[in-house]
Design a protein that fits this description.
Blueprint lengths: L7 E5 L23 H13 L4 E4 L7 H6 L7 H9 L6 E7 L5 H15 L3 E6 L4 H4 L10 H20 L6 E4 L4 E3 L9 E2 L4 E2 L14 E4 L4 H10 L2 E4 L4 H17 L8 E10 L3 H12 L4 H12 L24 H13 L4 H9 L5 E5 L1 H13 L5 E4 L4 H18 L12 H4 L22
Parallel strand pairs: 1-2, 1-13, 2-3, 3-4, 4-9, 9-10, 10-11, 11-12, 11-13
Antiparallel strand pairs: 5-6, 7-8
Bound molecules: flavin mononucleotide.
The site of flavin mononucleotide has 22 residues, from helix 7, strand 10 and helix 11.
């Protein structure tokens, strides 16, 4: 790696913060969830700190229990990102869309539009969804089996890439004199045919500034890692310990290299939930303040949804009962992480709920700005991360603490940019523009799994 390598910072936006009880904190403005000016302020702060990108997760369901105790019912991510595109200038805009409950044509069109509107700042967090509750909003009783979801995802992304590439660079001629609007030799039919999709194309949006959105992936199971190695340019992942993070990092870079990709073209960004105080003591107090607002009944509902097993009858002061992890259809790698965390640290259910409340299994670090910067620098310099997915437990105050105390410390250490050097999201991440599959004559390559 060269001496100028700098880390990448993505802000994972949960409107009130990632802690389950963040909405109850006295400093939280609970009206913010559907108040656009709240999101505009947040985006402006992140952009002023020169972060690479903003990221919005998504889930295609809610429940009466979830809304009773948890803040939910906010904006659909791509709609919100589209609005944010016009009030920001440089920061990347990453939205989550599921391949299990969408069609490639609609998705390709929406992301091409966002990329145009934002001047090349769009990114897609590709997920396959993982719960029966979501399946029940799309004509199914159960979420499709894990491997089947990833197979559909592979074909889905393959088809979306053909759609984005169906317009080559330079296809738009717009010659008024000759009456030629586009060079049709540079506009291609996709003629995609596979088990899940039949798509003629071309896309009805012309080529966008980045050609296609930055492709981000956020699943860490075996299927997820293979999928990431094939397509992802950035990977969001939950890693509890340095050793696990380093082994995940090496594994993904190796898998990408085995597919003929350059390892530095796939960025690994573990989640980080910082709780920051000017002293250790102050940071601990902030952590306890949030912990006191936790409702274990709600936390158990959330945990049950996450792992796909009903744990609501569990005794809080006993160990987690054994879970058949191999049978998980939904979020497999996260379930493994949770079970391993409870086993390794011998946690009772109550203790586990507290550990998960702040970041759902992502790494939490409590301490001074220097302590947090030390941890980030260690992971970054020692082959465990190319940057981080920043997940403040409390937005009110906690986001400012990170942007005003930790980011300047990283800049002082030369670990983070002081100014944007590019304009597109791919440029922020230091990644090359992908080759157009039609221009390269690779469009009719069929994957073995399709
Ligand atoms: C940072 C991050 C963000 C994620 N965002 C979402 C999301 O918005 N919606 C979703 O259904 N799953 C989301 N996931 C879950 C993953 O898509 C995936 O289901 C999970 O990591 C388990 O992966 P696996 O099924 O490959 O084991 C996210 C995961 C991570 C690490």
């Amino acid at each position: 790696m060269n001496a100028l390598r700098q880390m990448h910072l993505n802000l994972f936006v949960q409107p009130f913060g990632h802690h389950e009880a963040a909405w109850r904190h006295p400093d939280t403005d609970v009206n913010g969830l559907l108040d656009f000016s709240f999101f505009r302020r947040l985006a402006h702060k992140a952009e002023a700190a020169k972060l690479d990108s903003l990221f919005f997760a998504d889930r295609l369901s809610t429940s009466r229990d979830a809304v009773r105790y948890g803040a939910s019912g906010g904006y659909e991510p791509l709609t919100l990102l589209t609005a944010l595109a016009v009030v920001t200038k440089r920061i990347g805009l990453i939205g989550t869309v599921s391949t299990s409950f969408n069609e490639p044509f609609n998705l390709a069109r929406r992301f091409a539009s966002l990329d145009h509107l934002s001047g090349g700042r769009a990114g897609w967090n590709i997920i396959t969804s993982g719960t029966d509750a979501e399946a029940r909003n799309f004509n199914l009783e159960h979420i499709p089996e894990h491997a089947a979801r990833y197979e559909r995802a592979r074909e889905f992304v393959d088809a979306a890439i053909k759609l984005w590439d169906s317009w080559e660079d330079g296809a738009l001629v717009r010659d008024k004199g000759k009456g030629i609007y586009a060079d049709s030799d540079k506009v291609h039919e996709c003629n995609h045919r596979g088990p899940h999709f039949a798509i003629k194309g071309p896309l009805n949006v012309s080529r966008s500034p980045q050609g296609r959105p930055l492709l981000v992936q956020a699943g860490s199971s075996e299927n997820g890692k293979e999928f990431a190695a094939e397509f992802a340019e950035a990977i969001f992942t939950a890693q509890q310990t340095f050793e696990e993070a380093r082994s995940f990092y090496a594994d993904l870079k190796r898998r990408a290299a085995a597919r003929g990709r350059r390892p530095e073209h796939i960025l690994i960004l573990p989640g980080l939930c910082p709780i920051i105080g000017r002293t250790e003591e102050e940071a601990r107090q902030k952590e306890e303040e949030l912990a006191e607002l936790l409702n274990p009944e709600y936390s158990l509902i959330m945990l049950s949804q996450r792992v796909g097993f009903d744990l609501t009858g569990c005794k809080l002061d006993e160990p987690l009962p054994p879970l058949p992890v191999g049978e998980v259809r939904g979020h497999r790698s996260r379930t493994e992480l949770i079970v391993e965390l409870a086993r390794r640290e011998r946690l009772t259910v109550r203790q586990l709920l507290h550990r998960l409340a702040g970041g759902r299994g992502h790494r939490t670090v409590t301490g001074t700005p220097e302590h947090i910067a030390d941890m980030m620098e260690h992971w970054f310099r020692s082959g465990a991360a190319d940057g981080f997915n920043i997940m403040p437990q409390l937005t009110a105050g906690g986001l400012d603490d990170f942007l005003e105390l930790v980011v300047p410390e990283l800049k002082r250490r030369g670990l983070f940019r002081t100014e944007y050097s590019g304009t597109t999201l791919r440029e922020h991440y230091g990644l090359p523009q992908p080759e157009n599959v039609f221009a390269a004559g690779r469009a009719d390559r069929q994957r073995s799994s399709v």
